[in-house]
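Q: What residues go here?
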């Protein structure tokens, strides 16, 4: 999987505590391996975020992303944070 980042995602990541940044980067590396998606709890979002997806960094923290092409081999990471990230 090819993963890209929006500038806003990188800003959000930078504002997380260092330990959480490391954990998020580890999960992103796991996300690149499609066999590990189940452990990340990748799921479709609905409502205002319809067409986007999310996966877990830990119990509280999520990463919101979208697939760049119809073929889910390229993902664009949009936001990272606690459940309020779903409001962005």
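A:
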């Amino acid at each position: 999987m090819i993963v890209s980042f929006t500038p806003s995602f990188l800003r959000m990541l930078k504002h997380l505590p260092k330990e959480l940044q490391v954990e998020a980067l580890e999960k992103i590396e796991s996300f690149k391996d499609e066999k590990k998606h189940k452990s990340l709890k990748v799921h479709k979002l609905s409502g205002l975020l319809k067409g986007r997806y999310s996966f877990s960094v830990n119990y509280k923290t999520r990463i919101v992303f979208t697939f760049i092409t119809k073929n889910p081999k390229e993902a664009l990471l949009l936001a990272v944070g606690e459940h309020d990230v779903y409001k962005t």
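A: Context that may help when evaluating the design: Residues 2-87 form a domain with the YaeB-like fold fold (CATH 3.30.2310.20). The CA atoms of residues 3 and 28 lie 8 Å apart.
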